[in-house]
């Protein structure tokens, strides 16, 4: 079967299976609409740690260290940290300035640390007097002021809440220097502080775009209590994936990459990456290693080109102002966004991958090419775009059409001599139909093996490319035979190949049957438990014959319907045992 035909079959299967799940996901999709469109948000890490700014009694958190962790890093006793927190008095704080800065940068949502791991609330909490209004001379509710300012400026307001970690509360996680972990009453902390404060946030600050939990929680039952609370009070509010146990099936409406993480390719789920502007989230006077505007813009483009959202942090100082270098970077990013926002907002992942000169995003029948570098001959080339190109032009000069070259599946656009943006020049391709890629067959590596990775496959049905919290990726959510993954191979060395599959499986999934279909051959096997959810192991599947040169399709799927996830499939390899006619 030709690989184009194989890819078509997978796509048809995907469409059929997706049609059946479309009805029940329509509602869930709907509440994701703004998240899908907005792409770029501001994270604000602010609390009493900002007053210490990376220094405690002469000890310093070096540049690159997370200054908001200072209490933990130097085991500052609760009573001393509390006394220090009395001094927080951000007299120059102006919520409108924050909202306007986010807007000027092209950011569409703002997430502020309502309570970070130090346990201090930046809002007026009735649950604990350890909060900005009752505990400091400032006596103003920062969360309230930010929520109002954001609404005024059209920025979606969101909160961060550290639901598990709390170094102030004897029942919270993380403080091993004041409290004995053996006597910790986590349930009491959940019942008397964490859940009630989340209730306050969901009740007193108007509609929230999302609530950002952090560092996971022990059990799914505990996570459910937070999720249920959000659903009860604000069903439209999104919940990030860090709400649940990091070692189990990830919960939430979307996933966060690891801090400053970037996936190797696109995923089949909503995702966001939280990233710093220097090396810390909370303000540190020692860290002046700021990212450049070019770096931020190119990251934004890369993230959006893989279907994600960029949550970029600022760490305000204790006086309430945002460090000048952060402001300068964000303003410059904003100037680029002002001109090029069309190529970011509401776009989706690039189906044709990445290029040496830059990245691409798509929307409707348009492909936006973001060139970070100008190729020496002035021609941007992209291979694998299936669509015909009707017109090409710089986003900045739609009237001046550019020459389009087409040769053996490679589309080229000749750049003009003028109008170049040193950070990222956006070229628009108006194409015929929805942008689609020619399937790229997997070719044999120099050792003649095929490496079939879960991010490079085509998925069908409910099979999803997902993030795994250890910074890796796998296929999950597949339960039935129509939920499949597949690759198109181009065999250049026929012969007998040894098949190995690498996956993780919980005890509950053990015993499920799966099938590998390869040309006309079928290999069946049974899932084995691997020890833990994200503990991947390699399993031998025996050998298969790749009889002749040319295209071949490999598909893996559950053999029979079931309730449970099949496995967390990570990759498969085909290694030559013998080769025919080398
Ligand atoms: O420990 C925190 C850290 O301080 C910061 O809040 C980041 C933001 O994503 N989250 C945690 C670590 O993953």
Which ions, cofactors or small ligands are bound in this entry? ligand FHN
Helix content range: 10-25%
Proportion in β-strands: 25-35%
Radius of gyration: 26 Å
Mean pLDDT, all residues: 93
* Separate helix tally: 12
Distance from N terminus to C terminus (CA atoms, Å) equals 23 Å
Strand order, largest beta sheet:
7-6-5-4-1-10-9-8
Model regions low in confidence, pLDDT < 50 over at least 5 residues: 12-24
Q: What structural category arises from helix and sheet content? A: alpha+beta
The 3D shape can be described as globular
Largest sheet: 8 strands, parallel
Count the E strands.
29
Your description of this structure?
The strands form seven sheets. The chain has an eight-stranded parallel sheet with strand order 7-6-5-4-1-10-9-8. A five-stranded antiparallel sheet has the order 11-12-18-14-15, covered by helices on one side. The longest helix has 29 residues, at 3-31. It has twelve helices and 29 strands. The protein is of the alpha+beta class. Mean pLDDT is 93; it is low at 12-24. A hairpin with a 2-residue loop joins β25 and β26 (521-526).
